[in-house]
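User: Okay, second chain of the day. Same drill as before: sequence in, structure tokens out.
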Amino acid sequence: MTRILEDRIALVTGAAKGMAHEICLTLAREGAHLALAARERGPLEALAREIETLGRRALAQPTDVSDEASVQALVARTLATFGGRIDILVNAAGVTGPVETPVWQIKAEDWDHVLAVNLKGTFLPTKHVLPTMIAQRYGKIVNISGTSGLRGYKHRAAYSSSKWALRGFTRTVALEVGPHNVNVNAVHPGIVDGDRMDRLCRDKARARGWTEAQVRDEYVQEMALRRVTTADDVARAVLFLASDASRNMTGQSVTVDGGWDV
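Assistant: Same drill. Structure tokens below.
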């Protein structure tokens, strides 16, 4: 049986940890070869070995997505390694920034860091991958945004602003590259089970004087399905948008949050 991404070339930023780790493995299981980008070499190389056990090729390239020269090197090496093609770009690199912090208490350097990674770190890979996708008249770009880009998020102004900006970026780029047969969509996960959720619950609990269990339950009670999103849930949505099953979708926001934003 043919896998739905057989021999496609996918570049994933923010790879190796959290939901991006599962995204990479999901794409590989469906036949894609992977270029993996993140700041730390060790986790990237470990993920590359996992992917190779699935019979797919994997390139590990330490990258700072907020630095243009670093992104240019990533794209150039990906093209050189995989025969001049990049079919799929998943912009998954991101940081959470200040938690439980009103806007008047956010440090300017923290604000700048969140916007640099979450927004500029999506812009730069997109900028440098698109000429290849346009030339080959095929491409799928999936930006990992968040439900905080769909509604206000009290005490998370930097993070929420970056995710709202990603939504606008996604829709605008979709208009620009649609005539070249390139699809650009965004996945908006809610809070996702794992290390990042654990850290967020700890930070919120400390700031509020709550227990971590109370914070987690607050999130769950706001979800229509009363269950927390998993990395696999997000990866399945990315797979759909990276495949030809979504060929006539572009500029769209796909929300995976258990009904938190309903």
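The CA atoms of residues 94 and 118 lie 5 Å apart.

User: Thanks, on to the next one.
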